[in-house]
Amino acid sequence: MSMGSDFYLRYYVGHKGKFGHEFLEFEFRPDGKLRYANNSNYKNDVMIRKEAYVHKSVMEELKRIIDDSEITKEDDALWPPPDRVGRQELEIVIGDEHISFTTSKIGSLIDVNQSKSQLLRKASEELEREDDFPKSDLTKQKPSSFLIKRAAYFNSTYAL
């Protein structure tokens, strides 16, 4: 993988229910722009939208994590399909590779263990090894808490 290659990452988790369309979505664009949206109509909350630019070292670390995970070689055919509980989407462009995964909301380790997907189980195991990640000087949080928990484990991975 070339670190200077095109890079885009988008994660979405949401559902339509009693309070309308509720979701969390974020994306990292090739120019380093991070966009975040969180819509919850619970108690008439308003949509939260934030944009910021992240340092190139953050982008390089995201690329490294994705490259090391080999997720671009995976297939979501064995992942649980979206259902009435909700859906999750993960889209990644890295260099000339482009993947787009869709699955249901996964709310617990039981859901992961019942899945036929070896990738979901592997991602869960990796997240359990949180102590293996060094703390970031900028956030004083482990990268797994800062980024990975919302996107790789799909309902609570890659958080801000």
Automatic annotation (TrEMBL):
Keyword Heme: no
PANTHER family: MAGO HOMOLOG, EXON JUNCTION COMPLEX SUBUNIT-RELATED, PROTEIN MAGO NASHI HOMOLOG
Family: Belongs to the mago nashi family.
UniProt key word Transport: yes
Coiled coil: none
Organism for this UniProt entry: Microtus ochrogaster
GO cellular component terms given for this protein: catalytic step 2 spliceosome; exon-exon junction subcomplex mago-y14
GO biological process, one term: nuclear-transcribed mRNA catabolic process, nonsense-mediated decay
Principal location listed in the UniProt entry: nucleus
Localization per record: Nucleus
Protein name listed in UniProt: Protein mago nashi-like protein 2
InterPro entries the record matches: Mago_nashi, Mago_nashi_sf
